[in-house]
């Protein structure tokens, strides 16, 4: 588990490109037959990926958490961006297909990840936050029939925004949030930009009451996203490639424009779970 410290906006405006990437970019999330984790002091979020290929992978706490097991005092959200796979939680096997998600509540002890097909392995993207109580473990699907242990994303949580004329026609699919999948503080979802659109989260905003992490994917090798961050009057950019993630402090804008359309997963951690609690910034105020 890699550790990252918090950063002051007064310092960040003096960072070089290399320092900016070192502090906020996670250049590789998925490693074959391994679990990669990054622990950020910003709201104590843990971001990472599990990519089982030849064998299953067990999630352990490691020395960094000083815990008996990973979710002893934490909760976790998962979205699979690879092939079909399974997540086993305390002996219960849950099928998690491509673009499907999962929430695992505080207190789950034994968690293992496996792929159905080594030729098309699952890629389980993980976000974890400190938790004060336990909520039910569920699988999250975009379509289908609800049943025990499975939540279908509500229609009102599939939001179409933007226009092709503004290059930001996108569909937001909210996975973990109050009223659908309960959690202590974690929220997660996925946004897909339609062909011809490249801008996400525009007009941009900040939210002092929670931080965010973006994972960009569905990008070919020669494509990229310019991820914009920093204070509204001290903006900076980070070039992000396929399946790379960016940590966004609560004081920072978080927006991007790609060389083509793409998909990204957003995960938020903080004291306020009101999705619409944002401080919008007019385009003319950006510098």
Automatic annotation (TrEMBL):
Catalytic activity: 5-dehydro-4-deoxy-D-glucuronate = 3-deoxy-D-glycero-2,5-hexodiulosonate
Protein name: 4-deoxy-L-threo-5-hexosulose-uronate ketol-isomerase
Keyword Zinc in record: yes
EC number: 5.3.1.17
Cofactor note: Binds 1 zinc ion per subunit.
InterPro entries membership: KduI, KduI/IolB_isomerase, KduI_N, RmlC-like_jellyroll, RmlC_Cupin_sf
Organism of this sequence: Faecalicatena orotica
One Pfam family from the record: KduI
Binding site for Zn(2+): 205, 207, 212, 254
Protein family according to the UniProt entry: Belongs to the KduI family.
NCBIfam families (alphabetical): PRK00924.1
GO molecular function: 4-deoxy-L-threo-5-hexosulose-uronate ketol-isomerase activity; zinc ion binding
Top-level taxon: Bacteria
Entry function: Catalyzes the isomerization of 5-dehydro-4-deoxy-D-glucuronate to 3-deoxy-D-glycero-2,5-hexodiulosonate.
Pathway: Glycan metabolism; pectin degradation; 2-dehydro-3-deoxy-D-gluconate from pectin: step 4/5
Entry keyword set: Isomerase, Metal-binding, Zinc
Cofactor: Zn(2+)
Gene Ontology biological-process entries: D-galacturonate catabolic process; D-glucuronate catabolic process; pectin catabolic process
